[in-house]
Amino acid sequence: MKTIRIACLFVIAALLVIVGRAMAVEQDQSPGAKLFVKYKCQTCHAVQSKGIGATVKAKAEEEDDGWDDDDDDAGSPDLSGAGIKRDSEWMHLWLRKKVATEKGKKHMKRFKGKDEERQVLVDWLLTLKTPVVEEPEKK
Length: 139
Ligand code: HEC
Prior knowledge:
By secondary structure, the protein is mostly helical. The chain has helices at residues 2-25, 31-38, 54-62, 82-85, 88-95, 115-125.
């Protein structure tokens, strides 16, 4: 009887370790995050705070990801803090390439999904409020 109990405890402990590890790397599964991935935003953008980006970025360096540009990494910000300085109206216009940044640049990609999808995506982007520490330029 005692051995069974010890065996059970061992199994539970092992499961906790496995689950804990899975959770640490698991990517956000909310509808907004799924749309972000569905529309391939992560080919250019990481969202480190939500577990999005690192693997895809590493992959993008090996393979042609289908975007016709050489500078996927150059200037595509990690969007962990996308919701800090923007509001809903601006974000909708941005994704439709109808507004420019302070530097006069419009977005590289126009969002091609449905309006309802853009709504969900924008709502999710606006929840991203983890400040990103700028990395020094990679050469
Ligand atoms: C081809 C690469 C590329 C793809 C794909 C892409 N972006 Fe971007 N995005 C950029 C670049 C480059 C910038 C920086 C623009 C600048 O500051 O001049 C940017 C900036 C942004 C910003 C920050 C704007 C700001 O100044 O606050 C948001 C939010 C954003 N993108 C959302 C998205 C979403 C959502 C998708 C998917 C629907 C997406 N992006 C797909 C290249 C891309």
